[in-house]
Amino acid sequence: MAPSRKIGVLEETSHIPILNNAVRLLEDARLLRKARRYPSSAALAILSLEELGKFRAHNRDMANWNSRMRRSVGAHRYNHKQKQKIAAQAIVEAMGCDEVSDLLEVQGYEIKIAPLARTPSDGPSEIDIIASIDDRTFQARIANKIRRSAHHRFVIDLAAGRFDKIKQESFYVDEAHDGTLREPTTRIDRLVADRIIRLASGAIHSTKMVLRYAKALGAVSNRKPRS
């Protein structure tokens, strides 16, 4: 399991209780992982990701860092899948440029450098493109062909909001089509729990890093010129 990474948050950060709650849920997920309660551990890590997405959606300093979805959805109307998508953006921000480029190229897109003052295009965002990668495309063009493809599988599913299914499987016993009962402990194992915990840890760490940078930029832009 990945070690926890500590980085402080600047004072006067809006909606900081939400971020703190995301950290608390991740810490609880680690405790359950240590106790080998893998399904419950995975579920809490997903809840941590969703709280992290909610924080990014509400925090004033990160308004310009989130995808264009923020401009079309009211700040208080984000559902679970949308919060997962925003959390996935935090993970993508921490990826290397080559990794992001590989995922975009799978769907026929490429990264181009544009002036900062340029008006954003109406095309899909990076997260929209990554979320659109379906299972057939993943198996044909990513699985075993792109470095860290197992990690990318989880990032794609998170961006597409498919972690809701994992969350449900972590809590409930369901009946399969053949009438057999599927228990959480048979579907969510240590590897799945560890992967999701690493995603939550990475998303929180990335968000804290970006938050400090965003606040610094905001302070510079708001500074009054000397007379």
Question: Which key terms come to mind for this protein?
Answer:
two-stranded antiparallel ribbon; 2 strands; single chain; 227 residues
The biggest beta sheet reads: 2 strands, antiparallel
Shape by Cα distribution: globular
* Beta-strand share of residues: under 5%
User: Which segments are poorly predicted (pLDDT under 50) over 5 or more consecutive residues?
Assistant: 68-73
N- to C-terminal separation? 55 Å
3D architecture notes:
This protein has 227 residues and is mainly alpha-helical. The protein has one domain. Helices cover 61% and strands 2% of the residues. The protein contains eleven helices and two strands, in the order αααααααααββαα. The protein has a two-stranded antiparallel ribbon. Strand 1 and strand 2 form a beta hairpin. Helix 1 packs antiparallel against helix 11. About 3% of the residues have low confidence.
Question: What's the helix and strand layout?
Answer:
Elements: H1 16-34, H2 38-58, H3 69-72, H4 80-93, H5 97-106, H6 126-131, H7 135-141, H8 149-159, H9 163-171, E1 174-175, E2 181-182, H10 184-187, H11 190-222
Antiparallel strand pairs: 1-2
Helix pairs in contact: 1-2, 1-11, 2-4, 2-9, 2-11, 4-8, 4-11
Condensed summary:
This protein has helices at residues 16-34, 38-58, 69-72, 80-93, 97-106, 126-131, 135-141, 149-159, 163-171, 184-187, 190-222; strands at residues 174-175, 181-182. It is an all-alpha fold and 227 residues long.
